[in-house]
Amino acid sequence: MKKIVFFLLTCLVAVFLLGGCSAESGRVPVSKTVIDPTCLTEGYTEWTYSDGYVMRDNFTAKTDHDFVPFTEGTQPGLIRYVCRNCGLEKTEYVGEEISTEVTVDPLRPRPSFADGEVMICSMILENTTEDAVRAIRAAEANGAYGFMVYVSCLRKEDRTLEDLQQIMYCTDLPVLAIAYNVSLFGAQSLSFDDMADLLRLSVQAGAAAVDLQGFMWSDDTRASLTQYRAYWEAKGFDMSFASANPAEVCADPAVLEKQRAFTDEIHAMGAEVLLSVHASVQMNAGQIVALGKFMEAQGIDIAKIVLSGSSKDTVLEHLEACKVLSEELQCKFSVHGQSTLSRLMCPMFGSYIAFCVDEYTQVQTNIQIELDTMADLFEDGELKCDLEMLVDLFASPEMKGAR
Ligand SMILES: [Zn+2]
């Protein structure tokens, strides 16, 4: 009994001391801040004491996400929401449900991504296999010729052979698999080998093609361009593009050999390779053509070059390059800059891929052409657009929205 009384007394003293009233410790709270909870973090009260000690208590639970609809397109049956606090997205399907039933037929011949006249390609960035299947089928109904699926955007648990097969077999149109270090929730850190493995798995699952990034297995592509420019010039290549200091163009022969081995491997599996360069600089037509030829020499099926610049002058350089490349390259190419005008017109001058979005979302940055719009310009791969259509198009609210 005595022990218990002593214990209680000790507790009382302790509470008295911790209460901040003790002259002995000198610890007096000098400020109190109440932090409200959000959908990402709990709320709490923060006490700062005179000696600099900081303490938090009175924790409160996280709040629900505050979803607001932000779909700008007109696609029926689909609403996208984004949390106004944390940016989390969710997709809601209303009205007629798109089936996610998929029959995997391993005997189906693999479709080709590269053998058409033009590829009106819908970009698919979804977090789950089911959402990707729905998005592909919705875009197919809206006129897409093929799809670029960011397999790296899928949740980790959906990056399996079985899940990827659902995506590759939900359509008979060709799917190109992309594994980049972006996801719907910010950057991730896949190694080069992780990305290559994910692409191999996608091909195994039935993908028609893969996106090989120009900087795969390179530590520093810009340094390699400086170091090996003379090496390639001695072999007869026009390396004038190196003066523009583009990103993602590797010139290191050892790294290119590794990329070539990967390309050969994908070809041996029956799929195609698109080599992509996001140059992040402006280039003139001559430099773009030289780069296209350097990329073609890597043995790939499509050379994709994305350039900076949105002025009319840069668009003219892109169009000039497209005209020359369509005469001088054996492989397909895709060239465009960062403007609607360039994205819209380059396919009219021989650039193979018209990158489209079926539905504008925050992730897709609203810079690509809307699928309906691009599909309307072509009929069975033939351009059917005239000047009057173009004028109407640029006056339309959709194009103003896409700048
Ligand atoms: Zn939230």
Keywords:
nine-stranded parallel beta sheet; 35% helix; 403 residues; 22% strand; alpha/beta; binds zinc ion; TIM Barrel; 2 domains; disordered N terminus; three-stranded antiparallel beta sheet; 19 strands; 12 helices; single chain
Write the layout of secondary structure elements.
Elements (H helix, E strand, L loop, with lengths): L1 H20 L7 E7 L7 E7 L4 E7 L6 E3 L8 E6 L5 E5 L25 E6 L4 H13 L4 E5 L10 H9 L5 E4 L3 E2 L2 E2 L4 H13 L4 E5 L7 H14 L18 H16 L3 E7 L6 H12 L5 E5 L5 H17 L3 E5 L3 H6 L7 E5 L11 E2 H7 E2 L2 E2 L3 H9 L1 H5 L2
Parallel strand pairs: 7-8, 7-16, 8-9, 9-12, 12-13, 13-14, 14-15, 16-17
Antiparallel strand pairs: 1-2, 2-3, 4-5, 5-6, 10-11, 18-19
Helix pairs in contact: 2-3, 7-8
The protein binds zinc ion (ZN).
Zinc ion binds next to loops.
Brief rundown of the structure:
This protein is α/β, with parallel strands linked by helices and 403 residues long. Helix content is 35%, strand content 22%. The strands form five sheets. The chain has a nine-stranded parallel β-sheet. The protein has a three-stranded antiparallel β-sheet with strand order 1-2-3, with no helix packed on it.
Explain what you see.
With 403 residues, this protein is of the alpha/beta class. It has 2 domains: 28-64, no CATH class; 98-398, Aldolase class I (TIM Barrel). It contains 12 helices and 19 strands. The protein has helices spanning 2-21, 129-141, 161-169, 192-204, 221-234, 253-268, 285-296, 312-328, 340-345, 371-377, 387-395, 397-401, and strands at residues 29-35, 43-49, 54-60, 67-69, 78-83, 89-93, 119-124, 146-150, 175-178, 182-183, 186-187, 209-213, 272-278, 302-306, 332-336, 353-357, 369-370, 378-379, 382-383. The chain has a 9-stranded parallel sheet with strand order 15-14-13-12-9-8-7-16-17. Strands 1-2-3 form a 3-stranded antiparallel sheet, with no helix packed on it. Strand 2 (43-49) and strand 3 form a beta hairpin. Helix 2 (129-141) packs parallel to helix 3. The longest helix is centred in the first third of the chain and has 20 residues, at 2-21. The radius of gyration is 28 Å and the shape is globular. The N and C termini lie far apart (81 Å). Residues 1-24 and 360-367 have low confidence and may be disordered.
